[in-house]
Design brief:
The protein folds into two domains: 55 residues, DNA polymerase, domain 1, CATH 1.10.150.530; 287 residues, TIM Barrel (Alpha-Beta Barrel). The protein is 34% helix and 17% strand. The protein contains twelve helices and twelve strands. The longest helix is centred in the middle third of the chain and has 16 residues.
């Protein structure tokens, strides 16, 4: 059995990366109450503080003016440390797509994206700084893994961008965040415990959490089979998105190196187990890469593998990274791929491309910051 490649950056090789200080969003409501009592504060402060952060999307303790000044300072030190320092924010698509680059407490860089549509507002958030999955066509995979993010570092991205949406700056979109996709930097299921905790914060009713619908949360994975099966038992109604990218083991071994450990058949079996246990349709993500995985016979093979299953294929026009040998498939090739999948009875759409003018591919903005 070939071992799974896990790549570390030079900055963290040989030492355990330091996690950030504790934050309100790391704790459930009972944990917050205990933390405040330990600070000499009454338990009710936990709901008061949670209402500010999750209900009003207020992240600055100094703006919580219904708290005594001395209490604000104490709480800021213990429960509201600054986790994300803005490095760069960029907008495109007439302001409907906004990408943020953050520096974490240890200097690591992560990205998140806000996307406004007529009927919804979606944020794409990161779960790791870098990624250890080593997919060669992905900018994050090329950077290697720095460390897992904490629960609060994950949640804070969504809370910040929910605040941006609430400000009304995205014309033609609702002002309330409705959807979160774990499709930013990192492999979410490689940071399993913190990602699941983040999902519970995002979906718990205010003031304990952000109050989003579980059905509006999507967790992507390249196919970590044990974690996929574990997620099926979490009593969650989130969507599982499988980044497949090839229907055959020979090519997927190259494009998604984790396939060297868990082959296509085993990964799909875990996906169908998730669908059976949750009743949720699995999304199969497939990046269309010119002359690599876009041949008609691969469309036919994918159709045979997925036909009759509770699934939907999301074809993704590749957003090539600078200097990469990979490029997007031609539109006629893409259309033929769609036609063949639909002919096999497989629900298929092509993802709306967003953010190409602002280093839209995940990891591009962080990479450009490092090299400037």
């Amino acid at each position: 059995m070939t071992s799974l490649p896990i790549i570390q950056s030079a900055a963290t090789a040989g030492r355990r990366p330091a996690m950030p200080p504790r934050h309100l969003a790391d704790l459930d409501i009972s944990g917050r109450e205990a933390a405040l009592v330990a600070l000499g504060e009454p338990k009710f402060r936990a709901r008061q503080l949670s209402t500010h952060y999750f209900g009003r999307l207020e992240r600055d303790p100094e703006a919580m003016t219904d708290l005594p000044a001395a209490t604000r300072a104490k709480i800021a030190d213990d429960l509201l440390p600054q986790l994300l320092t803005p490095v760069r924010e960029m907008a495109t698509d007439d302001g409907a797509t906004r990408k943020a680059l953050w520096r974490l407490h240890d200097g690591s860089l992560v990205e998140s994206v806000l996307m406004g549509y007529p009927d919804r507002v979606t944020v794409c958030i990161s779960s790791q700084a870098g990624c250890g999955m080593a997919c060669p066509f992905c900018a994050t995979g090329q950077a290697g893994l720095t460390r897992n993010l904490s629960t609060a570092e994950i949640v804070d991205q969504a809370v910040y961008l929910a605040g941006v949406a609430a400000s009304g700056v995205i014309a033609g979109s609702p002002s309330r965040l409705s959807h979160v996709v774990f499709m930013g930097m990192g492999e979410p299921l490689a940071n399993y415990n913190r990602v699941v905790a983040a999902v519970r914060r995002l979906t718990s009713p205010a003031p304990e959490g952000l109050g989003l619908s579980q059905r509006h949360i999507t967790i992507s994975t390249v196919g970590l089979v044990p974690a996929m099966r574990k997620l099926a038992d979490e009593d969650l109604q989130v969507t599982l998105a499988l980044s497949l990218h090839a229907p055959d083991d020979d090519l997927r071994d190259e494009l998604v190196p984790v396939n060297q450990r868990w082959k296509v058949a085993e990964v799909l079996d875990a996906a169908w187990h998730y669908a059976d246990r949750t009743g949720r349709r699995v999304s199969v993500e497939y990046a269309m890469i010119k002359d690599v995985n876009d041949q008609p016979w691969r469309a036919d093979l994918l159709g045979r593998l997925l036909a009759g299953r509770q699934t939907h294929v999301n074809l993704i026009p590749l957003n090539p990274t600078p200097g990469s040998k990979w490029d997007a498939s031609a539109k006629p090739v893409e259309r033929e791929f769609v036609r063949r999948l639909r002919a096999a009875g497989v629900s298929t759409t092509v993802r709306d491309t967003r953010g190409r003018e602002i280093d839209g591919a995940c990891g591009q903005l962080a990479a450009s910051e490092v090299t400037t």
